[in-house]
Known about the structure:
- This protein is an alpha/beta fold.
- It folds into two domains: 5-190 and 229-255, NAD(P)-binding Rossmann-like Domain (Rossmann fold, 3-Layer(aba) Sandwich); 198-225 and 259-309 and 328-354, UDP-galactose 4-epimerase, domain 1 (Alpha-Beta Complex).
- 38% of the residues lie in helices and 17% in strands.
- It contains ten helices and 15 strands.
- The chain has helices spanning 14-25, 69-79, 93-98, 100-120, 157-176, 198-210, 231-242, 260-269, 316-322, 330-354, and strands spanning 5-9, 29-34, 59-63, 83-86, 128-134, 180-185, 188-189, 217-219, 225-226, 229-230, 249-252, 258-259, 275-278, 285-288, 294-298.
- It has a seven-stranded parallel sheet, sandwiched between helices. The protein has a four-stranded mixed sheet with strand order 8-15-14-13. Strands 7-10 form a two-stranded parallel ribbon.
- Strand 1 (5-9), helix 1 (14-25) and strand 2 form a beta-alpha-beta unit.
- Helix 1 (14-25) crosses helix 7 (231-242) and helix 4 (100-120) runs parallel beside helix 5.
- It starts with a strand and ends with a helix.
- The site of guanosine-5'-diphosphate-rhamnose has 22 residues, from helix 3 and helix 6.
- Residues 91, 93-94, 134-136, 187, 196-199, 201, 219-221, 224, 226, 260, 302, 304, 307-308 line the site of guanosine-5'-diphosphate-rhamnose.
- It holds the Pfam family GDP_Man_Dehyd.
- Its EC number is 4.2.1.47.
- Its cofactor is NADP(+).
- GO terms for molecular function: GDP-mannose 4,6-dehydratase activity; NADP+ binding.
Amino acid sequence: MAAKVALITGVTGQDGAYLAEFLLGKGYEVHGIKRRSSSLNTGRIDPLYQDPHDPDRTFFLHYGDMTDSANLIGLVQAIQPDEIYNLAAQSHVQVSFEIPEYTANADAVGTLRLLEAIRLLGLTDKTRFYQASTSELYGKVRETPQSETTPFYPRSPYAAAKLYAYWITVNYREAYGIHASNGILFNHESPLRGETFVTRKITRAVAAIHLGLQDVLYLGNLDSWRDWGHARDYVKGMWAMLQQPRPDDYVLATGVVHSVRAFVEMAFSKLGRRVTWQGEGVDEIGIDSASGAKLVAIDPRYFRPTEVEFLQGDPTKARERLGWVAETPLAELVAEMVAADLAVLKRTQESLITND
Ligand code: NDP
Ligand code: GDR
């Protein structure tokens, strides 16, 4: 039987890298869309690189952009994918307040462009579609934990754009019979997480402080609560959705919540430091309980105009229908992230010494 063909938008991102690795392991021919950039943006997928001259290669990269309809139609036509995973997005919630129109173009209309490509090219019966929907849709939560039936209340331009993408995916499923599913994914992290999301920002800073490369970690809202899982587990759920006889929408989450404050404490504890807290509001600081050194401080720059305070997912449907569970406990994830950041920073330090 011929290998299944998958197209991943956002292949250079955290989830794209894990998903590409997972699908290649399952024997897929994998195509990924990458953006043109003046500096290299393929670091996360470099380990998957295959020589373009290898006649048996199964991993292909194409230039593209979610804001370019003709480009997307051309790629879908040439690749004729069995499965499309739409992971590309301007994915940073705070940044979406700075570039709301671009966020809507890439995240909302970009999703429409891909669905239109499937429809216009007559691939409605062939190509299955996964949309990277998000727990940010719940925003100002009115029910805890949140499930597939919890009402949405987006609290950022990002979430509002993703709300359109969610519903246009449902609409193309109902209107044209496309096998299109939304994965409503709660926060998932890894050593490949972008450096400006809070978990990675914390684990990098903990490693840098440990090596004497940084003094203080500046954060925003310490009392925000999230349901954090491991990206490696979550991409398996994306795939499982597209293997079902019928398309549907599923929450992927751990069901367990922690605050940003607790994440900070856990990350420092991995390197043997205990953080204690002093002061209140913007004057609050985190102190090394052994040395008294200031480790954490608040910078109001990181407060959002509208915040999502508390997210906790109910993954029952995914467990019962897909057999999916979040396998990695937070303590294990944090340990992996801190260890990886320590290793990266040590290598950088060593190369600086060598180049001296
Ligand atoms: P990342 O930010 O790590 O990756 C986003 C990817 O999209 C990158 O490959 C990026 O390219 C690409 N991209 C951004 N804009 C465009 C564009 N205009 N055209 C083409 N490609 C573009 O996100 P994650 O991997 O963490 O998340 C994957 C998806 O899942 C996103 O849609 C995100 O919104 C959603 N999501 C993520 C969750 C999480 O906790 N991680 C939870 C729920 C949903 P480049 O590398 O060049 O920047
Ligand atoms: P989120 O992730 O907004 O949930 O979106 P992020 O890690 O950016 O923020 C989580 C919470 O931490 C608080 N916070 C800070 N956040 C950042 N980035 N930097 C800080 O210094 C800081 N201090 C406190 C935030 O206010 C927030 O409450 C992520 C993205 O991956 C989305 O694409 C995805 O849809 C959702 O997760 C589910």
